[in-house]
DNA sequence: TTTGGAACTTACTTATTAGTAAGTATATTT
DNA sequence: AAATATACTTACTAATAAGTAAGTTCCAAA
């Protein structure tokens, strides 16, 4: 695959996560890459195309991470910790996650991008739920709630704590993440 | 105060909460109100003015709600339930809360709107923390975490559950809220 | 050596945006 | 009755947005 194409996706993702979908333009990308506006359209004819590709890339990256954890024999706790680490990194970079950024602009997204975003959310929630169920069976986690609700709350907590923490100066973000998962 | 002015603020708030700050225009407002674009600028010269006024109005509304609860002798549990009800209503209306919507666009907001949004977040978090502390003293709530962390997690949970639930079809949102506060 | 395609640029168009300057109608005050 | 203020409209400007059509450069295959 083309290097420029990959750079556009990467830059687009970072722009969405820092400025938001409706605040970034093809000009932002082309200027940064030292190419012309039309060159971005060459790879992604419309902004919808780019948006959808960015979400698809994120899904792929997540699935690769999960596969990677399996092949390394990570247990459920280690897998959950790895997931939380993604958010710790986002917090350090002062960026939102792709779900949180696009969720706010959901009503302005086109159908295909929406569908992919929904799919991504469902994939993560399913993975989280599975991990919670198996981890509980293995007595790695202790909790009383429905695994599905618990998964939903962990994801919501991660997504919004990035958003809210951006508005708070002093914040023990790591501690907040620990409390959110709070699986003894 | 002018009726038109109030209508603009109300409409602007709803537009931010459904489309996002960078996706709505003065045209959206003027068309809906049957007035001209310039009439909106008459009341709010710049979009920054409008954004700031919308946040300020929300702060005022929140403070009035708190005063109202105090004068009605609501205990801490009743107060927390009232707070959660705001989010249940938002969920029914398929809208985000003002904090969640603007948090995503935070980096594109001007300084004054940012400051007001920060102030609003701090006011809510302080109120939540106080309620948790007092409610725990009165043995209305039982929890082990730091009240500040708990307050942060409750707010984050409410904010993001609106965002994430918008992407999920079937959802027991009320149950999720109950689990988030999960104060026995 | 030509042909074809990939990766662009040039040079636009059209639409929409925030914002403004100057004017008008109507009601209120002096 | 004249002056003033309120609440707009008319008619713009300048900037930026997404998107496109046609051309160019360069490399690799036939």
Name the helicity range of chain A. Answer: over 70%
For the record, what is the CATH homologous superfamily label of chain A?
A: Tetracycline Repressor, domain 2
- Give the overall pLDDT of chain A as a whole number: 95
Distance between the termini of chain A: 44 Å
Structural account:
Two copies of one chain form a homodimer. With about 180 residues, the first copy, chain A, is mostly helical. The first copy, chain A, has a single domain (about 50-180), classed as Tetracycline Repressor, domain 2 (Orthogonal Bundle), CATH 1.10.357. Chain A has nine helices and no strands. Chain A has helices spanning about 5-20, 25-35, 35-45, 45-70, 75-90, 100-105, 110-135, 145-165, 175-180. In chain A, helix 1 crosses helix 4 (about 45-70) and helix 8 (about 145-165) runs antiparallel to helix 9. The longest helix of chain A is centred in the last third of the chain and has 27 residues, at about 110-135. At the A-B interface, helix 6, helix 7, helix 8 and helix 9 of A face helix 6, helix 7, helix 8 and helix 9 of B. The structure holds a DNA duplex (30 and 30 nucleotides).
What secondary-structure arrangement, pairings included, does this model have?
Two copies of one chain form a homodimer.
Chain A (H helix, E strand, L loop, with lengths): L2 H16 L7 H8 L3 H7 L3 H25 L4 H17 L5 H7 L6 H27 L9 H19 L7 H9 L3
Helix pairs in contact in A: 1-2, 1-4, 1-6, 2-3, 4-7, 5-7, 5-8, 7-8, 8-9
The first copy, chain A, binds a DNA duplex (30 and 30 nucleotides) through helix 3.
């Amino acid at each position: 695959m083309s290097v420029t194409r990959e750079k556009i996706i990467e830059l687009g993702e970072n722009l969405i996560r820092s400025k938001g979908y409706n605040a970034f333009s093809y000009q932002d990308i082309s200027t940064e890459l030292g190419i012309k506006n039309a060159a971005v359209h060459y790879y992604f004819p419309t902004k919808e195309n780019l948006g959808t590709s960015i979400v698809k890339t994120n899904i792929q990256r997540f699935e690769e991470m999960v596969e990677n954890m399996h092949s390394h024999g990570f247990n459920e706790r280690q897998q959950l910790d790895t997931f939380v680490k993604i958010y710790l990194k986002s917090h350090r970079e002062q960026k939102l996650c792709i779900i949180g950024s696009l969720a706010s602009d959901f009503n302005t997204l086109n159908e295909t991008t929406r569908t992919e975003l929904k799919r991504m959310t469902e994939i993560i929630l399913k993975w989280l739920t599975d991990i919670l169920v198996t981890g509980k069976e293995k007595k790695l986690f202790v909790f009383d709630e429905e695994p599905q609700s618990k998964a939903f709350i962990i994801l919501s907590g991660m997504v919004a704590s990035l958003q809210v923490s951006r508005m708070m100066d002093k914040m023990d973000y790591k501690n907040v993440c620990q409390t959110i998962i709070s699986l003894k």
